Batch of 2 targets.
Target 1
Amino acid sequence: MATLINEGKAKQLFTTDDPNVIQVHYMNQATALNGKRKEHIDDKGEVNNQIDSLIFEYLNHLGIATHFIKQLSDSDQLVKKMKMVPLEVVVRNYASGSFQRKFDTEYLLKFEEPVQEFYYKSDRLDDPFINDSQIHALKIATPEQLSTMREQVFKINQALIKLFAASGITLVDFKVEFGFDADGNLILGDEISPDSCRLVDAQTHESLDKDVFRKHTGNVMDGYRTVLSRLEATAK
Ligand SMILES: Nc1ncnc2c1ncn2[C@@H]1O[C@H](COP(=O)(O)OP(=O)(O)O)[C@@H](O)[C@H]1O
Ligand SMILES: [Mg+2]
């Protein structure tokens, strides 16, 4: 029998018959302000699971190691069970969100090179920015592990830029999480979806991601459905 082992703000994790494999269920829920605001959103789990599955299959095909095994149903997938590194690994191609606020830049200022940042994953502390030396002091990861994550996340960025561009979508920024699989490999885990990426229409710059929910600027599912249908159309 499947037992619930972890429930976060977007997903539930269940055991399977294989101790190294877990079932991820995408919930119909959106949160902002690190969980302080929470709402039910019809179909969000299904749409995000389908977007995430399509993206992770693409990354696996490119030879980028990830936790993703297969999509099980509209709302569920099988992944390798991992020991997660408590870091949010962020890459930015254009200025938005906290970067834009912090440095008072123009919206969607294009960076010559992608910007990479780490945040310490803690709802209680509001995911504070953390630098390499703080990461070492807290024994969160070794310098070698940080280099591996940086190298991987830049590869992932290039792959995602290409995938989204083919669908007329610009990848502004995104965050991912890494973990250790049963063999001790440090690989990509968690999810890549409009919850964790800033995506804008390449022509109009209309937001197609969770910013619509964060800023109350419309029906968040319109953008998510646009992302899914465009990715599906391009994948064919
Ligand atoms: N392959 C994996 N193995 C174990 N835990 C994972 C894996 N992928 C993601 N997780 C963890 O699953 C939990 C639930 O995800 P989510 O609902 O997004 O949580 P959160 O609210 O912390 O962002 C998170 O703690 C995330 O780090
Ligand atoms: Mg999450």
Target 2
Amino acid sequence: MRIEKDDIVIRSAVAGDAALLKNWWNDGSVMEHAGFPKGLGTTTGEVLDRIALNKDSLGQRCIIEIDGKAVGELNYKTKEGIAYPGWKICEKEYQNKGYGTRIILMLFDFIFKDKKLNSLDAINCIRWDTMLENARAQHVYESKIGAIKTEVVENAWKDQMGVWRTAVNYEITREAFYALHSDL
Ligand SMILES: CC(C)(COP(=O)(O)OP(=O)(O)OC[C@H]1O[C@@H](n2cnc3c(N)ncnc32)[C@H](O)[C@@H]1OP(=O)(O)O)[C@@H](O)C(=O)NCCC(=O)NCCS
């Protein structure tokens, strides 16, 4: 897939992105938000295997580009009319500048409108989560995207250091999304 708006491009990852993804995934400062403060310790081969899944799946792992520079990644999968995405701006100098909000809005508009993605079951809801500590992400989801916080799950999962983490779950329906973002 490829979607583009002004200075932002979101496109499916290809084999040529493996080295970049490996660097991000092995960097603890990038992966802390996902519970891997020491990084994933992955190999280029393992990353290539993950990228290869793009071929056979409606769900995709994508690269986020701003002004032609790869600055982060996102992914999504769908099941029974619900989409499950995730995202991160890995290059820190691109965080906190409004890009994340724009990227999420672009992605959700694509997920709700793309014919192929909606061909099996129409996607009417998007669900994702974040860690309790990620106050910035929660602010973006609640105040800028307009998502509903559906649940706070204490001790939902154990991170790489064996520390229990609390998950904050979010969702937004097609109807609510376009009621809030009618300009899309
Ligand atoms: C979370 C993420 C997608 C947000 O995108 P972003 O481009 O950084 O965010 P934006 O610039 O669009 O918006 C940031 C907002 O959060 C606010 N903010 C910044 N730090 C904050 C904090 N510690 N607590 C609360 N709000 C905060 C900003 O003031 C701004 O809100 P405002 O416009 O109302 O003033 C991005 O920072 C990111 O990818 N981070 C690393 C990985 C990650 O956390 N991924 C999400 C996991 S669920």
